């Protein structure tokens, strides 16, 4: 009997108490906040320890450059409702152990499946452009292959798609990618339930999203600099003058060196 009761208490302690600050917030809304913090700010979802909601909220506020109060504001909940990348905002997350990077300077990629929102030739062009945006700053070359296993396998998929990170329908999580490594390492997945666009109509801009995801495929985690392409939420950007920020360039060159330094691999 005690054992059963203890088990029940452990379960209770792993859920979040609704704090006073949430007063006036509906239960459903509060669940959204909890899920957001658990998903993007919890270092190990497998350990059953009490989550300190206030600390997680402070981490999130710090990441987004907001006043670190530990109290929910409308600005915080507004950010939580924005479409974003599915990779968490904590460096210690298991997708990026030990800052992995590619060790060869020729990286292959393959487009395994396409979206129905754009012609295949446009997807190919935008991906080539996204790879070029990165390769113009680092001594890496990207080579497209049409069959077999490539370092970076690119696909569009909906809901459950064979990894442990199912997509969630339109909005919220748009895409995710895995840090460099064998197997699924480097692969980039895009949620087919989004409305992808080349910028000529409304929807999610595929070039921006692909450039962000390929940043993960190369070994970059999220940046808290709002001008960075590695910022976790989806932002409307100027599509004509779209380029990497200084922060992105600094990050990627820390891993691979710069283009003038072809033979210098750290
Ligand atoms: Zn991301
Ligand atoms: Zn996936």
Automatic annotation (TrEMBL):
Binding of Zn(2+) 2, residues: 85, 212, 216, 222, 230
Binding sites annotated in the UniProt record for Zn(2+) 1: 161, 163, 176, 189
Gene3D superfamilies: Collagenase (Catalytic Domain)
Residues that, per the record, bind Ca(2+) 1: 117, 194
Keywords: Calcium, Extracellular matrix, Hydrolase, Metal-binding, Metalloprotease, Protease, Secreted, Signal, Zinc, Zymogen
Cofactor stoichiometry and binding remark: Binds 2 Zn(2+) ions per subunit.
Signal peptide segment: 1-17
Biological process according to GO: collagen catabolic process; extracellular matrix organization; proteolysis
Domain Peptidase metallopeptidase: 98-258
Residues binding Ca(2+) 3: 168-169, 191, 194
Keyword Calcium among record annotations: yes
Active site: 213
SMART domains associated with the record: ZnMc
GO CC aspect terms: extracellular matrix; extracellular space
Cofactor: Zn(2+); Ca(2+)
Keyword Secreted annotated: yes
Binding site for Ca(2+) 2: 151, 185, 187
SUPFAM superfamilies named among the record's database cross-references: Metalloproteases ('zincins'), catalytic domain, PGBD-like
Motif (Cysteine switch): 83-90
Subcellular location: Secreted, Extracellular space, Extracellular matrix
Gene Ontology molecular function: any one: zinc ion binding
Family: Belongs to the peptidase M10A family.
Protein name listed in UniProt: Matrilysin
Classification of source organism: Eukaryota, Metazoa, Chordata, Craniata, Vertebrata
Primary gene name: MMP7
């Amino acid at each position: 009997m005690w054992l059963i009761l203890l088990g029940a208490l452990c379960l209770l302690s792993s859920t979040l108490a609704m704090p006073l600050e949430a007063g006036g917030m509906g239960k459903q809304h509060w669940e959204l906040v909890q899920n957001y913090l658990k998903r993007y700010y919890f270092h190990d979802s497998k350990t059953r320890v009490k989550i300190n909601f206030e600390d997680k909220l402070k981490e999130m506020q710090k990441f987004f450059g907001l006043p670190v109060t530990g109290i929910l504001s409308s600005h915080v909940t507004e950010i939580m409702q924005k479409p974003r990348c599915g990779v968490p905002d904590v460096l210690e997350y298991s997708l990026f152990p030990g800052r992995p990077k590619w060790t060869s300077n020729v990286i292959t990629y393959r487009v395994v499946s396409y979206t129905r929102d754009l012609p295949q030739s446009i997807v190919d062009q935008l991906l080539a452009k996204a790879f070029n945006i990165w390769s113009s700053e680092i001594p890496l070359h990207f080579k497209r292959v049409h069959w077999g296993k490539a370092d970076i396998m690119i696909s569009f998929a909906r809901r459950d798609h064979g990894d442990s990170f199912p997509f969630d329908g339109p909005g919220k999580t748009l895409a995710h990618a895995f840090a460099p490594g064998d197997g699924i390492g480097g692969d980039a997945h895009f949620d087919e339930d989004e409305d992808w666009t080349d910028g000529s109509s409304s929807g999610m801009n595929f070039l921006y999203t692909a450039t962000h995801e390929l940043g993960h495929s190369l070994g970059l985690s999220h940046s808290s600099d709002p001008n960075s392409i590695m910022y976790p939420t989806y932002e409307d950007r100027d599509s004509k003058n779209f380029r990497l920020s200084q922060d992105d360039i600094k990050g990627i060159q820390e891993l691979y060196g710069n283009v003038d330094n072809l033979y210098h691999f750290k």
